[in-house]
Give the backbone structure.
Amino acid sequence: MRILGIIPARYGSSRFPGKPLIDLKGKTMIRRVVEGAAKSSLLTDLVVATDDERIVQEVSGFGGKVMLTDSKHPTGTDRCAEIVRSLAEKYDVVINIQGDEPLVDARQLDQLLQAFNDPDVQIATLASRKIEMEDILNPNRIKVVIDKNHRALYFSRSPIPNFANAKGEPLEIYPFLRHIGLYAYRSEVLLQLSELAETKLEQIESLEQLRWLYNGYSIRVVETAIETPNIDTPEDVDKVLALL
């Protein structure tokens, strides 16, 4: 199986402009992501997809593969689809690797990619049982409910399932799942997803994956115990530096 890893890296982040190029103990964040992801035993190729020439220069400078993409893409999924369309090489599976996780763990990537040994898997993502009531109530922590075959039924910023009628402590009654936003797709499915129009469901929750469920695509949820911190704002930098 030929697998392409794509790392979307935007320069103009609204919360932290230029963050792919910040220095983390002698290496830029994007370099740490590339070097960490490259340790995956399942990736055939790895490329950074960016909208900024400064990131192109940085990745080229340390010997990584990089491609310049349209600056108007609303999501990383769209940026990944542009890469797949533009490459002459063909890949069976594409994994969208978050460009703001400098401590990316290749074992986590491999856990997700192994889902595609099942030919019925169209899209796969990760989730964790490590969840507290604070996370369940936090709209910035995405929750997911799955069926008996580990397919996603729904994702939400709200507590799901709702526990208003629960008799006892919710976390003792039900195995809540916290979503980890790492995605992989069959190549042909990725291209189809990029053609879908936005839906009212995803707009009200502000969750792109609800567009895929709404249109009938299946998302396999892989449970993992591996997590790595991301850098979303300047305040997150010190937490990551302490772990390097």
User: Anything to note?
Assistant: The mean pLDDT is 95.
